[in-house]
Amino acid sequence: MCMNANPNIDDLHNASACSPSGIISPARCALQQSVEANHMKTLLRASLLLLAALALIACAAPAAPSGEAEMEAAEPTVVRLGMNQELEFLNVMYTQGGNSLQASKTAQRGLLFLDAQGNWIGELAEEVPSVANGHVSPDGTQVTYHLRQGITFHDGTPVTASDVKATWEAIMSPDNTPITRLGYEKIASIDTPDDYTVVLNFSEPFASWKILFDFILPEEVIEANSPGLDESLAMRQPVGFGPFRIVDWKAGEFVEYEAFDDYWQGRPGLDKFFIVIYPSTEALLAALEVGEVDIAWGLRAANLPTLLDLQDKGVINLVNAPPAGGERYVMNGDNSQAPIFTDRNVRVALQHAVDKQSLIDNILHGQAEINVGTEWHGTPWQNRDLVPYDYDPDLARSLLEDNGWVDSDGDGIRESSGVEGYEDGTRLTFTHRTTSGVLQREQVQLLVQQMFKEIGAEMVIENRRTAELFGTWDQNGTWSHGDYEMGGWSHGLRVPDPEISNRFLCNEIASEDNPGGSQWHRYCSADVDAALIAAQTEFDDVERTRLIMEAQRIMHEDAYALYLFATGRHYGVNTRVQGFELRPFTVWYGNINEWTVSE
What we know:
single chain; 599 residues; alpha+beta; D-Maltodextrin-Binding Protein, domain 2; Dipeptide-binding Protein, domain 1; 4 domains; seven-stranded mixed beta sheet; 22 strands; 18% strand; disordered N terminus
């Protein structure tokens, strides 16, 4: 029988237990059960799943009750977006992971939004406050928003000033653990003189006030679920006022949305929207090719040959985003968790061991640019005076050899000998974790592993699922807990503002006493803190930029983060999907309300 097309995958015999639905095809159902049975798939296992999925698609009996035709007949405008990374949360209040934020912003919106060029515009707010329009005080300590009237939450209740104030109170409540309180803690009070006026009173100027309140929670929902807001279903599937409302979320499987008829800009062009989770980029690309998904999310340059082939066949349109942010390998800055990186000579040697251009040429097909070493790469706030750690394996070996890291037993891996802070014989070995099932990351990881080995350092690969890595402290997230020695992820700016100090400040390191911290590097520098905190209150653009660049210089010299490259993302979009755009910062969700389909 076709369900047993691949006897090497022990999970597939359970595929018949899947209940037919309009969300997931029989092939997707088999894949989903395999994900549930074994989250830590190897590349080989993902390849086997692909063969099984394609066999299931080819063999599915036409008369089998799938429910899909019925759903599409009733809901003719449906688009499915496939992701190869799980969502760790579906609420802006609790996540800073890129895919989770994008999924959340499909339903949740805030005071401000961004237009097609990446400029600030009003969403709930009628306009962007400024000193010129009289809504920002000259000293920067008061910001007044006038709200649009007639906007309602998905449950039909009006969105008013009291909801904005209640959201701030929920963020600041010690009973809750938002991903960050940065900026919100500088608000001394909020006045709501009427239902559609919000006055933010800051205890001191906060130059990046526009980044605040990028989501609004209903006051009634907060009150009904407090205490215990974090654990409530209301936060897992939040009510927003964006173009789509969340209908269902099954972690590791799918998110189902439906159009919000009363969205203030008009009803969206689609009736339904789904995000479907796949275990690997290979499985996602196979689903795209057979039409199981309409959009393949955020693929890397390593996937370009397949995407270009599908475009040549007329199956998809290839939509590309320019290079941004930066892929990096972070050395855990907490010496108690990763003592091997206490010695700066080790950190600098590893920096010089990596041939970044070779990675770009051999894996990324030249579609990337070297990131010298900054989170602000490619922005006006990038410190372009940073001296790069050029590829120089001989220098790397000398740094280690001259400072007591020698290969005493001849196995190719160095050990410490007379190195301060290390017992003699400490092996130069460490684990490396990044997201499993991402082809490009796995390929880069293997090449970097070999480059490290060539200078006598051993990197042991221990990849994990996205949801495990990017979870919050309360979710036992790997990054939040610092449960890694070297970790690989990418980050860039989410909005046209340089304020990302929550990723680096000492007081943002998550802990039992600070579960809401969002600093994953676990790196703490008083000098970096001083520069970034000063930048928060600096309204002079030149001085603010200087302070941010100074923080970059210090972090670069400390060498805890090995920045590799900045690369764009690539989306395969079925030709039936009309109006799809990739926008600055808001990527695919920026105009999702304008999407339509042509059958």
